[in-house]
């Protein structure tokens, strides 16, 4: 998902190592963590970064790690990532930060003492004036670095530290990446989106298929997602970004039991679209879960259900309102029908 050209967005710097870190971000305020999902709890950290940066008239940026430490320490165990690096950068940019620094997480980095991370990277290399982390952030060898350690080190080294406490949802439960993963795995994407504060999306390249959808009157763009994805199999109302333009659609994630019960794939039907999508990278946003995947007794029965699914998807998309200013910013792009990407109601206060 890309943003509209007008007004021109401020420069955003994505650095994938310390060597790529630009001088323009030095002396800034950094938010530190893994931030998988960049959910509402993480956004409280981002908001504090922006506040601290604005008060000092310095850049504010995010520091994160790749691969995710959980995947590094247990590579044999599939790990469902909510936001791979490119998606995370997209969200951070839309939120309004000045950049994102991705530090390679390898054996050498994992063996660093907490003091080395604070002194050599934060204080010397980045020259930070302030750091912001969540209440549960740990770092350094054997996770010895705690938020309190970071705060006391900052006092010694001359930079400030803010620790953001846990954020709760409207029911009083802690918002966490694990909760969101569980919701998505159950098909509860509306609930997951509420915790994220924006609608969850994936990105992938369109691959060649058997063209069976075209024969049914529902041509699809087939996208193979990370095998670690734990998305519930079934039919979804979706929004699709193609070459910077927003389209509506319906998608199936699963094995196509009516036909071959084959490899899991995301099949996206874009409403009223004509053109070749092979090789293009699409952004697919999950709006709502319509039903589970099922096997039909005949092709006619399948087509009849697809007609119903499409009508339900169109209705779900037509009723959308932004979940937050971030949600609105992510869809500040042209629509295929020349309408707005996501219309804010008059009283939304999110323009």
Strand order, largest beta sheet: 1-4-3-2-5-6
Radius of gyration: 22 Å
Task: State the fourth-level CATH superfamily of the largest domain.
Answer: HUPs
Question: What is the CATH topology descriptor of the largest domain?
Answer: Rossmann fold
Task: Note the run of SSEs as H and E.
Answer: EEHEHHEHHEHEHHEHEEEEEHH
Helix fraction, binned, reads: 25-40%
Mean pLDDT: 89
* Assigned CATH architecture of the largest domain: 3-Layer(aba) Sandwich
Task: Provide keyphrases for this structure.
351 residues, alpha/beta, Rossmann fold, six-stranded parallel β-sheet, six-stranded antiparallel beta barrel, 11 helices, 12 strands, elongated, disordered N terminus
Kindly describe this structure.
This protein has 351 residues and is of the alpha/beta class. The chain folds into two domains: 13-164, 3-Layer(aba) Sandwich (Rossmann fold); 200-330, Elongation Factor Tu (Ef-tu), domain 3. It has helices spanning 40-56, 69-73, 85-95, 107-110, 114-125, 147-157, 177-185, 189-196, 212-216, 299-318, 325-330; strands spanning 13-15, 29-32, 60-66, 99-104, 130-134, 160-164, 201-207, 221-223, 234-242, 245-254, 265-270, 281-292. The longest helix is centred in the last third of the chain and has 20 residues, at 299-318. Mean pLDDT is 89; it is low at 2-7 and 339-351.
